[in-house]
Amino acid sequence: MGCGTSSKVVPELPGSSFHPSWGKGVGRESCGPLQMGQGEAGHGGHRGTREAAVEAAQKMQVARYRAKFDPRVTARQVYLFFIRYDIQALIGRGSFSKVVRVEQRVTKKPFAIKMVETGVKEGREACESELNVLRRVRHCNIVQLIEIFEAQDRVYIVMELATGGELFDRIISQGTFTERDAIIILKMVVDGVRYLHSLQITHRDLKPENLLYYHPGAESKILITDFGLAHSGNKNGNWSMNTFCGTPEYIAPEILSRKPYTNAVDMWALGVITYILLSGSLPFEDENHMRLYRKILKGKYNYKGEPWSNVSNSAKDFIDRLLTLDSNHRMTAGQALNHPWVMTMAITSPMKNLQRSISWNLMLRASPHSQCSRSARASESHHSNGSKHTWGKNKTGTLG
């Protein structure tokens, strides 16, 4: 199976299980082997014609599959890829994919290309999930799909290249960071999430590593990336989810409770991100996953230590309304954009510089003693720049 439903997708070649004597059904579910002698009574004069039609249809089906897997066809896709793009550098690697920086030969514009090995189940599932989302979305704060090239066991996904680095690298490098700066960032991220949710898409792995600056300039936009765990419903129109997945520190309590959940899990993750953005620390943290999950299920966190004494009550209320155990009472993306902190804080409030305390807390996390291993799929997150700040351990669970 290829990655999604695009006409470019190469379907799986039916293996030895496909046989010319199988029934009339064309597609994945056949009717089983044709039993000779069944239905022959009273149709002797038509049997030869019917069998000839079935055989002709089967030959056409086999020809279509062979054409799509013809080495000349897949080779042409790869040839077009290398003719169009010049590979410049490896910028990320995962267990079944790698991300490279390329330059379009004609325009000289830089792009990122994610090369996914689809011969393995995990790579194929992640590729399908990501492309099912990227083909549907067009928003200024979501990484944009440019085009796709497909070979038999590999898919080349061409995307926007984010060159501005990760969120917290930018905070550490600048001299000041205030609540106003945090609001500017969050408005972009929440608006992107609002758009995804309007399409019934749930990201399921929102975290700082997946929020990248588009360019190094001060006015750069933020891009939401890495849709390898995203969910966009099923054929029956069911938008609830059951899969246990995500990055531990950002997993919502309803996922840990093994209950059906909704896109409200993204809003919980945004609460965690906001807490980190204003403090440089995690609200729930433990090296042991079981202890970490118990803390999340209790929903107990605090605003002790620096810089919380300099953070407004309105900002804390914003976090509290996201880190709510009952997902039905959690703010939606639209409500978050209309929260008083977001609506009025950027204009009216005194702006205290939180940068020193945030940077100190970030540096403590980056020390060898506290450094955690980067998420397996975060390392392949589009256009990683090798940040030293890790905000989650390995992802948990599989797609489902």
UniProtKB/TrEMBL annotation:
Entries under InterPro entries matching the protein: Kinase-like_dom_sf, Prot_kinase_dom, Protein_kinase_ATP_BS, Ser/Thr_kinase_AS
All residue ranges annotated as the Protein kinase domain in the record: 85-342
GO molecular function: ATP binding; calcium/calmodulin-dependent protein kinase activity
Pfam annotation, one family: Pkinase
Alphabetical list of CDD domains matching this protein: STKc_PSKH1
Keyword tags: ATP-binding, Kinase, Nucleotide-binding, Serine/threonine-protein kinase, Transferase
SUPFAM superfamilies associated with the record: Protein kinase-like (PK-like)
SMART domains: S_TKc
E.C. code: 2.7.11.17
Reaction catalysis annotation: L-threonyl-[protein] + ATP = O-phospho-L-threonyl-[protein] + ADP + H(+); L-seryl-[protein] + ATP = O-phospho-L-seryl-[protein] + ADP + H(+)
Alphabetized PROSITE patterns for the sequence: PROTEIN_KINASE_ATP, PROTEIN_KINASE_DOM, PROTEIN_KINASE_ST
The keyword Calcium belongs to this UniProt entry's keyword annotation: no
Transmembrane portions of the chain: none
Region annotation (Disordered) ranges: 1-24, 29-48, 371-400
Residues at which ATP binds: K114
Superkingdom of the organism of origin: Eukaryota
Keyword Transferase attached: yes
Family membership: Belongs to the protein kinase superfamily. CAMK Ser/Thr protein kinase family. CaMK subfamily.
Protein name in UniProt: calcium/calmodulin-dependent protein kinase
Organism from which the protein derives: Phascolarctos cinereus
Gene designation: PSKH2
